[in-house]
Amino acid sequence: MISLETSAPASTMILGEHAVVQGHPALVAALTPRLRIHWQSRADDQLRIESALGNLTSRWHTLSVAQCPELKWVITALLSQRPALEHSGWTLSIDSDIDPTQGLGSSAALVAALVSGLAWLTRGPTDTESLFQTGLTLIHQLQGRGSGADLAASLSGGLVKFMPGTPPKIERVSAPLALTLAYSGYKTPTAEVLEWVDAQWAALRPVQDGLYQQMGQATQAAFEALTQDRLDDFFRLVRHYQGLMHALGVSDARLSELVWDLQQRWPASKISGSGLGDCVLGIGLSKHAQTTGDPVWPLSEQGVQIKPAENGELLP
User: Fold this and answer.
1) Rounded to whole angstroms, how far apart are CA atoms 118 and 260?
2) What is the H or E stretch that residue 8 is in?
3) pTM (predicted TM-score)
4) Which of 4, 153, 262, 309 has the greatest count of CB atoms below 10 A from its CB?
5) Residue 146, CB-side half-sphere exposure with 13 Å CA sphere
6) Domains delineated in the chain
7) What is the pLDDT of residues 191-229, one digit of tens each?
């Protein structure tokens, strides 16, 4: 019998929303809440998936997303490796500390935990770049598009500069940042936001492209400021990026209110994510976190983890 646990952290976008889909860089942080999958082989041919989103009992020859659309990520990932795994049944038990309503990369964490487990079980490569490519293929299969920046953070951990491309560049960044998050109370799926933005700017595509260009330049300049310890410049560029998000049209009244509120206590604040809901991010240093009274979200230095079991016990 085979027993395995994989886990991956939540994530939040610091800089690069929208522009990263157009090929510009992004800065993403992995956060401490984690999603875990326990994989257990079975003596029969049943497939059991247990999670807060849904539960399913099936078999390899009947498994389909239509049986439980809420589990589409899990089912599609399993079907991609069916020839290697269908010699036995499996039980997958999924639990998560990540609130899926708050835009903290819960789907990316799930993808990271899925592709790492499947790679280990099928003796495939488990390096970050290989897992990223497999995960991005899954994301594109189910969402149609997406940069995978949050997936890169869940795989790598820490603070990550992500540059899309073939291959993408995933670079860990060391910086003494402290983060707080304020949830707007609602969420618009990223794919819907991207479609809405494109519709709004359909007659002004060159101006939209210019906004993305400015976003990319701001992210690159902020990365350089951060690595050179020019923190005042970094915070100024974060505030500038929020202005660009407002210009794009995705900072609605509630988000703008939260941004303004956090800016009274933190050096910079902005939308985290595609906008029209989700979270607003306050960014500063540890000294700011100690004086604001706002909850601080620690960064997770540990990315995806793969823990096989021996004699029923997970190995460290």
Assistant:
1) 44
2) strand 3-15
3) 0.92
4) 153
5) 26
6) 3-174 (3.30.230.10), 177-297 (3.30.70.890)
7) 899 999 999 999 999 999 999 999 999 999 999 999 999
